[in-house]
Amino acid sequence: MPDFGSILDALNNPSQRHAAMVHWPIVLAMLMIPLTFVAAILPTNKSIRTIAITAAGVLTLSGLFAMYSGEDAEEAIPAILTPDVYDEINVHEEMAERVWQFGAGLVLLLAIGALKSPAMRYGGGWLAVIVSLACAGWTAQTAHHGGTLVYAYGVGTPNPAACYELPGERSDGRDHAAEHAASASGQAAASSDPEAAFFAEHVLPILTQNCISCHNPAKIARSGQLDQTTLDGLLKGGWSGPAIVPGKPEESLLIKRVRGDDPAEDTMPPPPNPKLNEEQIKALEQWIRDGAVWDDGQE
Questions:
Q1: What is the pLDDT of residues 250-263, one digit of tens each?
Q2: E strands along 181-253, which residues?
Q3: H or E segment to which residue 59 belongs
Q4: Residue whose C-alpha is closest to residue 16's, from 88, 72, 57
Q5: Domain ranges within the chain, ordered by starting residue
Q6: First-to-last CA distance in the chain?
Q7: How far apart are the C-alpha atoms of 37 and 40, rounded to whole Å?
Q8: pLDDT surpassing 50 at residue 171
């Protein structure tokens, strides 16, 4: 007897739900090759064409569901990963966004193949075969990148093998944000630069504990294109422009957002996360006013 409680628990887990969803477009993409081929050599067989169109429609929907479940799984990643993992996630995500489009294209081509014109019927049918081959190859490559994330790096598993080089919370229970900030503070304190020491002791912990978990390269597509893991990322900014203007905290969007100055914009960090207190905001303002020196103790 299947344990329905366990099944429901798995579906409520973003990573496990995505793992269940991704198999459907993989199987359907492979199935489309023989279906489109048979539909092409038997263009007048309405039953075959109907089956092929239905399968392509299901491929389109399953591709969409897999894409959206992948976004939920990405949001649930509790840590900031190494740059190579960021790159793998971004490639996998960008490729996954095209799978459902292949399915929609196959629906259209197979529908064209149902027209009375022999040229349209044969042209649409054989073009559907070519697209189905491309779709299968694309989907297989997308699955390969997803498999690399899971099996090589352990992303989405209880014990990830990836090395978390940037500040963040690791699955081993250690607070690496605090450890990194403490290490950076110690290194900066040993230097003769008081502004570097101030950044490491007062500013870096605020960013690592309140901002970087969302505003990092792996989640940049859904965080306003703002990367807060580097000074360059803050200076470049996102959709709304530069996050900070060195020397001018009153003109810096980062300060405006954490203070909630604009009622049309959400205050950061967003609920249910606690808002920054006045001491934290003043530390950010002082850091920007003094030139936004960034020294996290890393080479």
A1: 999 999 999 987 77
A2: none
A3: helix 46-75
A4: 72
A5: 4-152, 176-289
A6: 56
A7: 5
A8: no
